[in-house]
Design a protein that fits this description.
The structure is a homotetramer. Chain A folds into 2 domains: 137 residues, Rossmann fold (3-Layer(aba) Sandwich), CATH 3.40.50.720; 175 residues, Dihydrodipicolinate Reductase, domain 2 (2-Layer Sandwich). Chain A is of the alpha/beta class. Chain A starts with a strand and ends with a helix. In chain A, helix 1 crosses helix 11 and helix 5 runs antiparallel to helix 12. Chains in contact: A-B, A-C, A-D, B-C, B-D, C-D. At the A-D interface, strand 7, strand 8, strand 9 and strand 10 of A face strand 7, strand 8, strand 9 and strand 10 of D. Strand 12 of chain C pairs antiparallel with strand 13 of chain D, so a sheet runs across the interface.
């Protein structure tokens, strides 16, 4: 039985608490948050204790911590937790600073502790089925990958300002998805973006609509489309053209009901946002973490994966400003 | 907090145990089963006690029982539990004998205890969305209902022999679905059936493929198709033609991945069977029971509904033998 | 080059005129109609002459006639045309009277002339692909066939009164489709019907909504659903469950555009009615007729097929009145 | 009645000949081709004469010419035909050289003759329905356009060498589609491409897989994906995200049959190539040309549109070599 401390008590922490307590091989021991009320609420609901972070990290009976705090604390907490010998599952992104994330990567390496980054979409049943089909050679050699990833509505501009921008906050999931499907990082990143959904986002120095093209050393190409607003719901699709066919992972819909009237044939919308769409993925992510900590399987997403995605986000941020392709090697050579 | 005793510890009892313990307003206190090992397994997993049925029914601190025993015990247990003042959620069907079920109905009436029959499909998010759309008048006046309901594979013939036959065991769900969607029982039932999937089923006196047509007093018509075998998975669809359009509840698929090759465009199969398809429905069913016992809402499925569906099953059994329509009034006047 | 006379100049005659003139192996020589203006219009458009029917039948240079007159003239014209040595393609149904159609069948037999009945749906690319897949054994042994066939709007009651009723006028297409897919006629026909779309249709002694179940000697079952009104367009679907899977021929849609908004995901309606849906089928039907007359292939739909469908319509008409199954053998022994 | 001369007698000329002769308002008078046998074949089939091009252009009774010759002759023939006072429908592209096309544009301007470029996809019922919905404001303000356009198989490398390359030969359709949907040309073009399908294509200096991003002055973005090989058929999809929703024009399928087996749920492939997919579009294109020449409506695609698409092809060709965005203004100021 894996004993777990949960750092952070916000909305996503609650999702992880459910996953931890529902898993037959793990139990939630303690929760910490600077917002004590939030920590108490989660602790009460799931039968855990409220403690401070130091206490959790020093408790030798706790095997693992799940880091669901704000992004600017991730690197520090990963370093402190691994220094204390804990296995770590940390929410994405590793850090807003690529340099800081790489320093963290080095610090962790010496501890030998497993650190997994929470790229939950790899565990979505649709994307993992697509990956499995690619791996099985069902469409031959991959050639052209397309990722469509639209949020239902933009976050407040106040969030935009601290988020690191669309590429670090939102498209980072898609960068990791590209790495997951293609099995390797791209050579160069070419980004085009604009602020057309909400001028205030542009005013804050960010884009809300972007197309990023990834070029691979072997000639493969990937393209990622992001928009902060798709009023019909969370639009999360992947398609991959290969030498022997095409694979598409389509949206999950709210239900299967279809209505035919004089106005057309109408089905349900895509599930609204990540909690609706990815709830099964969070449970599968946690199960994979437990399995890896138990040594049954290798870590399915590593800190290296987190750094790789962050480098792509930094490259895209540069490219959208200069208009020129940015090579990944120039950033993390 | 509703304290619950679980009668029966088979596979479906396990599903209910999950629903009971996951619900914030109910807790599982005790489990009984003639198979003690099975009862012990569930009790251990969900933190309940193994007791015998008498003990559970006599325990005044237990508010409700969930009956998930074999069909031939349902009427007796419903009567004993309501006599003991318990609220009851009983798996379908009420009984194999319509006469016995009607006697049970009378016995229960005097106790005033809520008795809900476990027609789980009413709580499937797709069928309940369809029902809601009908109720909202989205397709005008209902005229012609079609229910397709195929199992992935036939049960063993040994089960067929004690199941009461296809109409009482399998199509009873569809009879209830028709009543749920149409809002009233039909006037007559006309059934055609054959044993074409497995001759041994015919040898046991049952059919494995059937089409039943329901005629309503106001001219509406419903048709139910059943087969014991659809090799591609559990096929569970409902469609309703109305004066202003058509509503269809389509199958749930295993995932959303679609592959296009020289062989065609291939998507995932429907979810395999009722556990895969209806797991969310079991949780919603339990939540509705808790809500009704708490008095917040009326019982969504009553013992009367159970008797009505059973009468339709009896009518279909008669009709398939005689070839003639059977009026429901001739059975339950 | 097959020289063709067209008997009748109504709307469907125009469709056939296009098929005849577009086919490289046939030419339209003459048109007749009691409505001379209609005949002149078609003749002018397609470069043919207006003649009277006798003249066309006596013209030895005319090889074939297409009969697209009113139903009550079909049997007479088939007999006269074959007596004159013409090959015949006659619109369905052969006749409203089964006895008259059988007499026609006998009369034609002695002439040796090919007579094809215009069951155009057999030539729809979707239904013919389904048939081909069945024939290739792609779903194993057929077990349960379902045909959904809804018109977009009911015809005028004046038409209902002379049409022979829903079973002879509308469902006759579906009876033939069942024979086409199943490869044999059923043993018995059980019909349920009502007048729920338009009470005037009931007043005229007909039904507008019907479910007919066909039982085959070997245990297979088919069910046909008809409604005179599906406001969203022409609903023409076939599905067949077999021992190894399910085949479905779905509706053709007006276009492939899908719109996702806060209101849901909306696609185009089915094509509106038979002219929109079956235009390619009429061309394929004519091509098959030319091929058969040329001796390259056997007739794909025979007068026997027309009589078989008519017998099923008569059986359904009887069954809906009596409530009892009607055996086909009792009608055509 | 518009009298038409057809210049060229290859495969696409045959498609146009069908459209011209099927239209009630036009007739095909003459055909010319340096391959006399090909010209004779078309002339015989459609009742036209074989003549040489000079003769056709000098014949005052001929109102319009359809130019379906090899690309390197287009500009010359457009100039000669308009100098002779003919209305012109010319196959795309106008020319492989942007400079030559612009000279042609100037030469034509002084004649006042209508010149339409054959961007047939604008007349596809799916894309035109999408355009109509955009124009009607059904998804609000357009923001992000995606065009997927894959051929089923690469052409011979011998063709690649004279085609002007993927951008001028294949993606030019998609550039025009972007202009059609977005209503204006982009400001800059950023292209990424590689030769991954067939190394010989790379050897010939071309790419076979490409992603081109278009940036518009107002912040809108479009992305076009091309591949020379999609083994499952012609993949032609457009999707447009707007402030109020998403519009998608999906592929046409060979038929509507769906098969469910233990292997999954399989439907038909997309129609194989442009003749299968766009046959209705060619007829609609010709009808729109006739309507415009008659003065009933403005020309739906102009020579300016042809030049605009060609400029985008030239920009993409430059960008794929340099890696940098290319501004359209730098090419056609």
């Amino acid at each position: 039985m894996l004993k777990v401390g949960l750092l952070g008590a916000g909305r996503i922490a609650g999702v992880h608490a459910t996953a931890i307590t529902s898993h037959p091989g793990s139990s939630l021991v303690a929760v910490s948050d600077i917002n004590t009320a939030a920590a108490q609420k989660i602790a009460a609901q799931y039968g855990a204790e409220v403690r401070d972070t130091d206490n959790i990290l020093q408790d030798r009976t706790i095997d693992a911590v799940l880091i669901a705090t704000s992004t600017d604390t991730h690197s520090d907490l990963i370093e402190r937790a691994t220094a204390a010998g804990k296995a770590v599952l940390c929410e994405k992104p590793v850090d807003l600073s690529l340099a800081r994330a790489r320093a963290c990567q080095e610090a962790v390496a010496s501890t030998g502790c497993p650190v997994m980054i929470g790229f939950n979409r790899r565990f979505d049943p649709n994307f993992s089925a697509l990956k499995k089909a690619v791996h099985a050679g069902e469409i031959g050699k991959p050639e052209l990958l397309s990722i469509t990833s639209f949020d239902p509505a933009p976050p407040p501009v106040s969030y935009i300002k601290v988020s690191g921008g669309l590429f670090r906050d939102m498209m980072i999931h898609d960068f990791d998805m590209a790495n997951f499907i293609m099995g390797t990082a791209p050579a160069t990143v070419t980004a085009v973006g604009s602020s057309i959904v909400d001028p205030e986002i542009g005013g804050a120095g960010d884009v809300d609509t972007a197309v990023v093209t990834l070029s691979y050393a072997d000639g493969r190409i990937a393209v990622i489309k992001n928009s902060r607003r798709a009023v019909y719901g969370y639009d999360q699709r992947v398609e991959l053209l290969g030498s022997d066919g095409l694979l598409q992972a389509q949206n999950m819909l709210e239900n299967t009901v279809v209505k035919s009237t004089t106005q057309g044939v109408t089905g349900a919308k895509p599930t609204y946002f990540f909690l609706e769409r990815y709830m099964p993925a969070y449970a599968a992510e946690w199960a994979a973490f437990v399995e890896a900590v138990d040594g049954a399987k290798p870590l399915p997403v590593t800190l290296d994966d987190g750094v790789a995605a962050l480098a792509m986000a930094e490259a895209a941020t540069l490219s959208v400003r200069t208009g020129a392709p940015v090579s990944i090697a120039s950033l993390i050579g």
